[in-house]
């Protein structure tokens, strides 16, 4: 149920974001007579920013928050203490499994985010703004760089690790009963959202900072 909810959140967010990029891009580029490059804008922004960030946010808001609540409930009900009394290393048993779950979940989440963003951008540009299919497809195929997809996927993986580490940390160290669990979930979500944005910034600087990795002049 939790993974299904995550897929729904990611799908709706990326559909909306991809559509907004297409609407704003077509309008803004049209002001200077180059609305034909809307496909370029879609290939550029959806891969490098929208898909990995939305996947990270969806992971934090659903699976991550669930992990914090689960671990927090186990902590305040002394279930974690009981696990340790049985000579089981609680971090390895409880945290690592959720970290692996996050890594597994981010793969379909990222893939769905990319596809949904591309679909929304193409649908909006072609069927709402009226640009020809061939023109849009030409520019998105021209400027969609395979290495960008690989770097974007790596960014999503790094985000998944960071987000799950944040959420499991707050859940594992929760205290103060049910109220404390709620506070821990809120703190974890806020922190993980900041982490997602910071990771995006640093990876963008590291990968694309020296050069944009594309040549618009042809």
Task: Give a quick precis of the structure.
This protein has 218 residues and is mostly helical. It has helices at 2-30, 38-76, 79-85, 90-128, 133-143, 146-172, 177-208. Helix content is 84%, strand content 0%.
Keywords:
7 helices; mainly alpha; 218 residues; 84% helix
Q: How would the blueprint of this fold be written?
A:
Blueprint: H1 2-30, H2 38-76, H3 79-85, H4 90-128, H5 133-143, H6 146-172, H7 177-208
Helix pairs in contact: 1-2, 1-4, 2-4, 2-5, 2-6, 2-7, 4-6, 6-7
Transmembrane segments: 46-67, 99-121, 149-172, 193-211
GO cellular component, one term: ATP-binding cassette (ABC) transporter complex
Keywords: Membrane, Transmembrane, Transmembrane helix
Give an overview in words.
The chain has about 220 residues and is an all-alpha fold. The protein has one domain. Helix 2 packs antiparallel against helix 4 and helix 4 packs across helix 6. The relative contact order is 0.18.
Question: Helical stretch count?
Answer: 7
Question: Which structural class is indicated by helix and strand composition?
Answer: mainly alpha
- Which spans of ≥5 residues are poorly predicted at pLDDT below 50? none
The mean pLDDT is 87
Q: Please report the total strand number as a whole number.
A: 0
Based on Cα principal axes, name the global outline: elongated
Question: In percent, how much strand structure appears in the residues?
Answer: under 5%
Alpha-carbon distance between the two ends: 48 Å
**CA radius of gyration:** 20 Å
- Strand count, sense and closure of the main sheet? none
Total discrete domains: 1
Helix/strand order, N-terminal first: HHHHHHH
Residue share in helices? over 70%
Protein name: Permease family protein
Transmembrane segments: 46-67, 99-121, 149-172, 193-211
Keywords: Membrane, Transmembrane, Transmembrane helix
GO cellular component, one term: ATP-binding cassette (ABC) transporter complex
